[in-house]
Amino acid sequence: MYRILIADDEGLMLEAFKGVILAEFGDKCSVETAKTGRAVIEKAETFHPDIVFMDIHMPGINGIQAMREIRKFNNSALFYVVSAYDKFDYAKEAINLGVEQYLTKPISKSKIISVVEEATAKVDKVRDQRSNLLKIQEKLETVIPVVESGYVNSLLFQKEMAAADYYQQLLDIEYSQGYVMVVQFGQSYENGRLVSPVGMNVKAQSFYPEFRDVVKSAFPCVVGNIMSNRIPVVVPCEIFQNPYEDRIDLVEKARELVARLEGRLDAKFRVGIGRVWEMEELERSYREALRALNGSLSRVIHIEDLSQNGVYDEAFPGNDEKRMFRCLEEGNEEGMLQEVNFFCDWMVEHYSQDMNNIRLKILEFIIWGEKIAFESGAINYGFSYRRDYLDTAMSLSTYEDLRKWFQEKMVNVCRAIRDQKEDQSNSAVKKAMLYIQENYSRDISLDDVSSQVNISPYYFSKIFKEETGENFIEYLTRVRIDKAKELLVDENVSVKEAGIQSGYSDPNYFSRIFKKQMDMTPSEYKARYGK
Questions:
Q1: For residues 37 and 477, what is the distance between their CA atoms, to the nearest angstrom?
Q2: Nearest-CA neighbor of 182 among 220, 216, 145, 227?
Q3: Alpha carbons 171 and 234: distance in angstroms, whole number
């Protein structure tokens, strides 16, 4: 149904125009009329026309003024100016208002019909575009929670920064820092603690979509999956400029969030909040948020508000410490050594008379580094493996000797982590290549192969290209074409059969791919090299 509004101060003109439209288009159109500028504005407010035919000269408010008013509340209506005056000034004003055509009276029946056909076609196009946008939005509403969950899992639990970076681009996140809120839910409170009966997790699945809407309306955030009776929320942000004041504002916003959640959902909520960290370190914020929840009975608690928070008693380069261990975890030997040397210089500069404390700090760093390597599977550990560490540290009498020992131990750990990562990647790639070689004739995808090696598609694609020099599609195509060449030289195998057996069920597609790779069609290859 198309809603058409005709404005003209001549009654005969109105009836004639309306009659032509109804006679030609019947019940496809609903037509309303108005004789004054004021009347057409009022009518447009309730009728919401798709198409408006507007006379310029009408009593009181003229057509140009009326169109300007209607545009304020209806941006989609198509305007067609109708006038007995072909004046440039009017035409110029009409163009500024986005008028489709300037029609000069008298207008023939055929012209009315052609203009209405043109207008309805434009309305259909706009409606189709709007419908397509709604479909896309509907699909995005399904996909975005999955992407957000992948991002949260990559950051907080899997520590796959390559995958996290990919998700971050998809979600258009511009900040490289953020903090974590852990939202805990339950049925009721007992002694300040939330009680979650067995069925609460099932109930949470039903209110999760609305929970997401409420949280995302309160914070510019990324919402993770339900985990037992908790939901992690990542909030990307800048480093706080006024930590205390910003923390107070944040806690107040979280309190308002709890009130809104409990007002809309049949559950009780608590929120624990961690500190702002670099994205690579955001797992720490998650642990802090959990500690905040466990260390207090408050409905909303920030980790900084807990009295048991440990702090350095004096100036300490904590960010450099983070960078050193981050480089270690990445197998970045050069970056790690840079931070090792920085710490040696810093300790000597500030504590040159305290050799034993420097020895202790270096021992702490080495043991911490080896623990990281052990947890990543890069080294093994035995109770007596470090039996000589204390004796060695005490026997080194110069700062330079301590530095060299520190460097040696950290380099060994870093190389073990790097080699382990490379071995894992090489093993995964070799396993993937074998899977492709055994299944090339099937309809296999990147997702299929990456699932076989238990690596996310994005990260698998990256290491596959680094190891083989080809991306997945290039490698699969080469394997298939090599097999097709073997089959084509066999006189008992047709071109079509060669395509199917090498993984191409569509003969035309097989021919195009083969020619692109070999600069000749499968038939030409068979004719030239067939036995």
A1: 68
A2: 227
A3: 12
| Segment holding 215, helix H or strand E | helix 200-218
| Three-state SS letters, 340-408 | HHHHHHHHHHHHCCCHHHHHHHHHHHHHHHHHHHHHCCCCCCCCCCCCCHHHHHHHCCCHHHHHHHHHH
Task: State residue 102 phi and psi, 5-degree precision.
Answer: -110, 105
Amino acid at 440: Y
Dump pLDDT digits (tens) for 247-294.
889 999 999 999 999 999 989 999 999 999 999 889 989 999 998 888
| DSSP-based three-state secondary structure for 228 | coil
Can you list the positions of beta strands (E) in 68-200?
A: 78-83, 101-104, 177-186, 188-190, 193-195
Q: What is the DSSP secondary-structure string of 43-102?
A: HHHHH--SEEEEES--SSS-HHHHHHHHHHH-SSPEEEEEES---HHHHHHHHHTT-SEE
Give the residue carrying structure tokens 């055994």: 438
Q: Give yes or no for a contact between 333 and 411, defined as CB atoms under 8 angstroms apart.
A: yes
Q: How far is CA 130 from CA 135, 137, 493, in A?
A: 9, 10, 52
Distance CA 374, CA 357 (A): 25
**Half-sphere exposure (Cβ direction) of 250: Cα atoms closer than 13 Å:** 25
**Which of 288, 371, 279 minimizes the C-alpha distance to 329?**
371
- Taking only the tens place, the pLDDT of each residue in 304-332 is 887 554 556 567 887 788 889 988 988 89
